[in-house]
Amino acid sequence: MGRVALPFLLFLPVIIWIILQATPDIFTDIAHPIWSEVSAQLGQLLPNYVTISPEMTWDALMVLLAYAGVFWLAARHGRDRKNASMMLKFFVIVSTCYAIYGLVVFFGGWEKVLWFDKTSYRGDLTSTFVNRNSYATYAALGLASSIVVLVNVLEHDVRKSSTWREMLRLMTDGVQKKAWLPVVGGLMTGTALMLTHSRAGFSSGMLGLFVVLIGLAVSRVLPRKLARRSAGGVVCLLVVGYWFSGDALDQRFEYAEGDGTIRFAVYEGVMQGIQLSPATGYGYGTFESGFRQFKPQNVAWATWDLAHNSYLEFSFDAGLISLIMVLATFIVIFARNVSGVVSRHRDQIYPILGTASALIVAVHSLVDFSVQIPAMGICLMFVLALGWSQSWPSKG
User: Fold this and answer.
1) Which among 33-37, 39-43, 326-330 has the top mean pLDDT?
2) Chief localization class (predicted)?
3) SS3 261
């Protein structure tokens, strides 16, 4: 167990509670009332569950365990420097391929996800994702990964140069010879992120970039003067990129007020449900079924299978105590990554990436559900685990 003991001990009670939610006749006093109502209607005694749907809870638990399994495997194998380097470069390659595919489909005018016709988000780049916000978060992680790999490859050239002219010359040569992959990856994922037209994904992605630059400066991987100038360059790129993105992103920001009104109405209903069952929840993974009785009138026309706020939804499903335990688990992992940025003397790019990725997803999860999409959640666990494994003091 070793280094992952504390996160494991914090996370284990959550898993146990979710299992108990889906196990019959353990807590009959706090079972969901629907089971007694159905028993009365059918005239026969049915098992009592805390969850409103045991099948949905078991299915959701399998996904949650897969997240934990990916973290454990990546943390275990990422302790070796060569493995960590290979794993991170592999993620850059994969995220770049997804971005290239998305760009080809977008500029080709094909409104498809693979061979399926798009049913939503036409005119937005979604790559192989259905939801543009989920892909925007994924692209943001890919962009941050490309940047830290680029810095890692060119770090030696930056440090050995004595003038800005020599630094630029060495960096240009380095890009051509050994850093073409992260450069291509950064360009592709950055462009794809902009063309998703996701305001939340775009904003959280830019926050992640600034965190990466701050981490590179604090850890002295980059000279602080260069990091400050890079931050200024990022601001300029944001302005230029926003201008080139056309009207779509601008329209998304203008739409924010009306969309926010609907979301806050949903949040109000979710919080009402939490207040009625704060400790037990209504069953992990059962939000759509459990939320129906709390759905406000002004949003009753829509089916809400997700709360568009992962924190509220987890609390609604599994209870406030489970939410606190999960947040504590992530805080421990996040703190370990931050510690690695400050205390490590080599390979700081991994905890820097872990810190930035955690903030990207944490902020985006306030208004969306990207972390609940397995493709996105597993990638987050992957980069967090790399940061975790490379944030401990170096040996030798």
Assistant:
1) 326-330
2) membrane
3) helix
Q: Which conformational region is residue 199 in: left (phi greater than 0), alpha (psi within -120 to 50 degrees), or beta? A: alpha
pLDDT given for residue 44 in this prediction? 82
* Domain presence at residue 75: yes
Residue 8, domain extent: 2-257+307-389
CB-CB neighbours of 207 under 10 Å: 17
In a domain? residue 276: no
Nearest Cα to 346, choosing from 81, 149, 76?
81
* Domain annotation covers residue 229: yes
- Per 3-state DSSP, the chain is made up of helix, strand and coil in percentages (nearest 5) of 75, 0, 25
Residue 160 lies inside a defined structural domain of this protein: yes
Are 216 and 190 a contacting pair, CB within 8 Å? no
Q: Is the pLDDT of residue 254 over 70?
A: no
Q: In total, how many domains does the chain have? A: 1
pTM for the whole structure: 0.88
| pLDDT given at position 160 | 56
H/E segment holding residue 95? helix 81-108
Per-residue pLDDT tens over the stretch 138-175:
999 999 999 999 888 877 656 555 454 555 555 566 55
Q: What is the dihedral of CA 349, 351, 352, 354, to 10 degrees?
A: 120
Query: How many other CB atoms are there within 10 angstroms of residue 82's CB atom?
Result: 7
**What's the CA gap between 352 and 211, in Å, rounded?**
8
Q: Are 14 and 325 in contact (CB under 8 A)?
A: yes
